[in-house]
Amino acid sequence: MLLDFDRLGPLRWFLVSIGVAVSLFLLLPVLFIVGLSFGDSQWLIFPPPGWTLQWYKVLFTDPAWLDSLLTSVGLALVVMALSVTLGLLSSLALARGKFRGRTALKAFFLTPMVLPVVVLAVALYGFFLRIGLNGTVIGFVIGHLIIALPFAIIAIGNSLESFDTSLEDAALICGAGPLETKLRVTLPAIRLGLFAAAIFSFLASWDEVVVSIFMASPTLQTLPVRIWSTLRQDLTPVIAAASSLLVGLTVVLMLLGLVLKRGKA
């Protein structure tokens, strides 16, 4: 039985207050970080005595920070492309396949979501150290792809399960080949699932820090790893600027996904 929110009376405002309090509890630390990134003090002081953009200037001009930023963006784009491609192929096999063990295979694909990240990171570190991939771009891509792929499989798989396969049958009857049917009927119909898979795959790589710490080398570090290593040495406001950039891009991509979803509706 569903409750009528408008008829709850005083309880309604109590629930609203709880919701606002929880939201502030979650958002205030992020807002503090954003505020610190614009402070003109060289120390992390809130509220800042003044306002400036110099820390963002340092972030985009310092070679070490800029290299880490470009590394994160490049890795996230590569992981996004691979994750969506492999996620689409895997989801098609899981949704349309009739082979034995399909449920177990799906559970295996989703294992990285429930496995503690540090366990996965240690295992990858030991394995990559043996085969010489630790501290390489390929090692980073594989590590991030393992984490991002389950998100793509879930997003694309849900779209395929809600897709009416009779449209594909109609296209085949009209003379379209299997590949043409997939390209002109299936993919356009599940484009929101593909876009969601792309967003979550990009963010899974963009925000990843635990696996990246184990994969990093002195010459190859992502932005989250640079933030972590700098925190251990110096509390500079550049850290706040880099953190704000991470959060800002995440929020923008999530809002973009929400807008496209509402547009489709």
UniProtKB/TrEMBL annotation:
SUPFAM superfamilies: MetI-like. The chain crosses the membrane at residues 12-38, 69-95, 107-131, 137-157, 192-215, 235-260. This is ABC transporter permease. The keyword Repeat does not apply. One of its GO terms (cellular component) is plasma membrane. Residues 69-257 form the ABC transmembrane type-1 domain. Its main location: membrane. It is a multi-pass membrane protein. It comes from Caballeronia humi. Keywords: Cell inner membrane, Cell membrane, Membrane, Transmembrane, Transmembrane helix, Transport. InterPro entries: MetI-like, MetI-like_sf. It holds the Pfam family BPD_transp_1. It comes from the Bacteria. One of its GO terms (biological process) is transmembrane transport. Belongs to the binding-protein-dependent transport system permease family. It is found in: Cell inner membrane; Cell membrane. Gene3D superfamilies: MetI-like (1.10.3720.10).
